[in-house]
Design brief:
The chain is α/β, with parallel strands linked by helices. Helices cover 39% and strands 19% of the residues. The protein is elongated.
C-alpha cells in the first residue's frame, strides 16, 4: 500500500486534469485562508510530529502510512476545501495532489511547519502536564456506572469528528442509563495497547465492569441503541 501511494503521488503530479485544482500558499496567506469558516485543515505528518506542535483545529492523517491516510481522509467533506501541511511541504504537496484526484479542493502550505514557525505563527501541542491513564485507574473508572461507554478518539481524527454528533445524540437520549468516558487517543497510546485498541475511534461498552460490545470506526445511533438491549 505504501508503494501504491508513492506511485499515485508521482502520477498525480504528472497529470492533474481529472481532479480538483490544487493550490499553494505561503504561511501568512495560509493562516488567513484557514481563519475562514467551513474549511478543513489536514496535518499529514506522523502522530508524534503532530503531538510535538500543530496548527489549531487541524486533523491528522499520516501520509507515510497508506492505510491510515486513506481511512482517515475518506471521512473528509468534499464540499469544504482542505488546507494541507507537513514539516517542510514535500509530503503535504504529494498528499494534496492525491486528494485532489479524489475530488477534494486542496491547498498546500509551502515550507510546512518549519516556515510556519519561522514566521512566529501560533502552534498548539499536547499539554506537557497531561499524564496517561494507567490500566488500574482505567478499570476503576469503569465502576462509575453499571453501563459505561468508552470512546477512544481524538479531536484531530476525521472519523472521530464525524462520529461526535452521533455519539452525543445517543448519550443525550440515554443519560439515565449509561456513563460516557472519553479517552484521548493521542495521549493514551500505552493504555490502548493494553486493551488491544488498534485504531480511532473505538467504542467499548461495559456492563458492571465487563466488556460486552466493541466496535472500531463509525457506529450508527441505532446500533449504539441495540447495544443497550
Amino acid at each position: 500500500m505504501k508503494n501504491l501511494l508513492l506511485i499515485l503521488s508521482i502520477f498525480v503530479f504528472a497529470c492533474n486534469s481529472n481532479g480538483q485544482q490544487t493550490g499553494t500558499l505561503p504561511p501568512a496567506e495560509f493562516a488567513n485562508a484557514i481563519a475562514k469558516p467551513n474549511i478543513q485543515i489536514l496535518d499529514v505528518r506522523t502522530a508524534a510530529e503532530y503531538q510535538s506542535g500543530h496548527i489549531k483545529g487541524s486533523l491528522q492523517a499520516n501520509w507515510l502510512d497508506a492505510t491510515e491516510f486513506q481511512s482517515r481522509t475518506s471521512h473528509l467533506d468534499k464540499n469544504k476545501p482542505v488546507y494541507v501541511y507537513c514539516l517542510s511541504g514535500g509530503r503535504s504537496g504529494a498528499a494534496a495532489q492525491f486528494l485532489s484526484q479524489q475530488g477534494y479542493q486542496t491547498t498546500n502550505m509551502t515550507g510546512g511547519m518549519n516556515a510556519w514557525k519561522r514566521e512566529n505563527m501560533p502552534v498548539e501541542g499536547i499539554d506537557p502536564n497531561a499524564k496517561p491513564t494507567s490500566l488500574a485507574t482505567y478499570n476503576s473508572m469503569l465502576a462509575s456506572g453499571d453501563i459505561v461507554l468508552v470512546d477512544f478518539g481524538a479531536v484531530w481524527c476525521p472519523p472521530c469528528v464525524k462520529m461526535e454528533p452521533v455519539l452525543q445524540a445517543f448519550v443525550n437520549d440515554n443519560k439515565s442509563k449509561l456513563t460516557l468516558i472519553k479517552m484521548d487517543g493521542g495521549l493514551e497510546t500505552e493504555l490502548m495497547k493494553s486493551l488491544n485498541v488498534e485504531a480511532l475511534p473505538t467504542f467499548i461498552l461495559y456492563k458492571k465492569g465487563v466488556e460486552v460490545k466493541r466496535k472500531q470506526g463509525l457506529v450508527t445511533k441505532e446500533e449504539f441503541t441495540s447495544w443497550l438491549k
